[in-house]
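Changelog entry: the Universal stress protein record was regenerated in this release. Current contents:
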Amino acid sequence: MKQILLPTDFSDNALHAIRYATAMYRDEKCTFYLLHVFEVPYYPIILMSTDRLHDPAYEIALERSRNALQDIMLRMGPVKNSDHHFKAISRKDTLLHAIKLLVKEKNIDMIIMGSKGARNARGVNYGSNAVTLMEKISSCPVMTIPRKARFRGFNEIVFPSSFEIAYEKKEINPLLELAGRFEASIRVIHIGDQEELTEIQKKNRKLLEDHFSGLNCTFHSLSNIPPAAGISCFAESRDTDLIALVNRKHSFFYRLMETPVIKGISFYSRLPIMVMHI
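Regenerated structure tokens:
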């Protein structure tokens, strides 16, 4: 049975991500954990112990959180899939710390959450919570769902790679699993300035070919264009359903996250992103 963690702040975007997740796993047995992390205003440090359970401010915040989670369940409507089970969790904590604990405690397979966009001079910007989890959660994949995304299965998945890193098969297993389950095509895109690949890049490209054997996989290349813009152009020109990235130091994702443009790139307002970790 899959264990799926669904962080929520009770926004419409978060509810949309929950519905996306249930549709994505409609054919699988799943336990969905709806998590709300809350704060208590002016919470005294002296009460950071079991005594906090008797603090009025904490009790009020906890009750509000639990009630709001029940409201989310009601808004979702009756559970139509008997193989889907939902559990609501309210915790006073930071979002990152609470999720790290739950991932270990519940053996979470995937985190799925909404991606908040705040328009600024650079365009649509990813929410700080989504960025933090994509960067810091290392024990399971994180998938972010934009408000405009509608689940229709995964027919095509774009996987950017510099071919500078040799990925082990287990590192991209979430991608392989999704592609196999939905019979999705994988489009590996390489963006670089050099005309020819180095010997190391050729070796790593061949390794990816081996990992993707048995799947509908093609390789594409773009040059003389910034990586984030290249991914955007490639995805917008196709009927892409998902962007898959690997978060590893010095990886393609790692370089993108250090570039401000990743937070303002236009395709993030439309396409889900899955970040895998090692």
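Residues 156-277 form a domain with the Rossmann fold fold (CATH 3.40.50.620).
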